[in-house]
Amino acid sequence: MSIQSEIEWTDATWNPVRGCTKISPGCKHCYAETFAERFRGVPGHPYERGFDLRLVPEKLNEPLLWSRPKMVFVNSMSDLFHVEVPDEYIVAVARVMEAAYWHTFQVLTKRADRLRRLLDNELRFASALKNVWWGVSVEDTKHGLPRIEHLRGVNCAVRFLSVEPLLEDIGEINLTGIDWVIVGGESGPGARKMELKWVDNILRQCRKAAVPFFFKQWGGVQKKTLGRKLHGRTYDGMPPRLLIPMPPKIDRIAHAERLSGFFPLSALATT
């Protein structure tokens, strides 16, 4: 079964990789790490090893078996382009997204340089997929803005920015070639405050560039307290998603079995 998501801009999450490591200020209060570490040492739990990075090849074919089309956030509990994820495993994940063409997949990374390199090489086939949206995280000017330039250099159908947690005024953004912008504040213990003027700056630029704008949340220790309204309304802008009928279940199962034979799962597995 899919994992139904409470993330406002997606329907479900798919995690063929679990765990990550911090690389920038946006990672300081990582929600995924906080969640995973609660279960470290719990025998049999998916996060028995906490937030240690590991591949989960038995999850690869999962989207092919779901009962209806979904908007899917890929690796909500990791980063597909982490340095320790082998190129061939990333290709395997992309092959599933290619096969499950009735879903819309959202891939978000902080490792934008590796994203660009692979989409120009081993993942060139995936760059043309209309059902895959490629995005980068943008939390500040020093780390976030250079990621946008890497993303802009990728030849793909949909490019998006997840400006969350927004930690400062990021100034003027070049939105050329960007199809969607999500903005949100940090939530949970120790959450850093997001200023209205920082959000308004991005909203103004999105309006000027005609880029769909999605305001996810104000954040805070208890994010539900502040909610997600901006200037008295919600902003749910999003690129149009593909509406493609699913093949019959028997065909999807057969395709999943074929892919299982295609993927060298024993080689992809990690200790």
Residues in β-strands, percent: 15-25%
Number-wise, the strands total 10
- Provide the spatial order of strands within the biggest beta sheet: 1-2-5-6-7-8-9-10
Radius of gyration: 18 Å
Backbone structural class: alpha/beta
Distance between the termini: 25 Å
Question: Can you tell me about this structure?
Answer:
The chain is α/β, with parallel strands linked by helices. The protein has nine helices and ten strands. The strands form two sheets. The protein has an eight-stranded mixed β-sheet with strand order 1-2-5-6-7-8-9-10. It has a two-stranded antiparallel ribbon with strand order 3-4. It starts with a strand and ends with a helix.
Give structural attributes:
9 helices; two-stranded antiparallel ribbon; eight-stranded mixed sheet; 271 residues; alpha/beta
What's this model, at a glance?
This protein is α/β, with parallel strands linked by helices.
What does the secondary structure layout of this molecule look like, with pairings?
Layout lengths: L2 E2 L7 E3 L2 E2 L12 H7 L16 E2 L15 E4 L12 H13 L4 E6 L2 H8 L4 H4 L4 E6 L3 H12 L5 E6 L16 E5 L11 H14 L3 E5 L5 H4 L22 H14 L2 H4 L3
Helix pairs in contact: 3-5
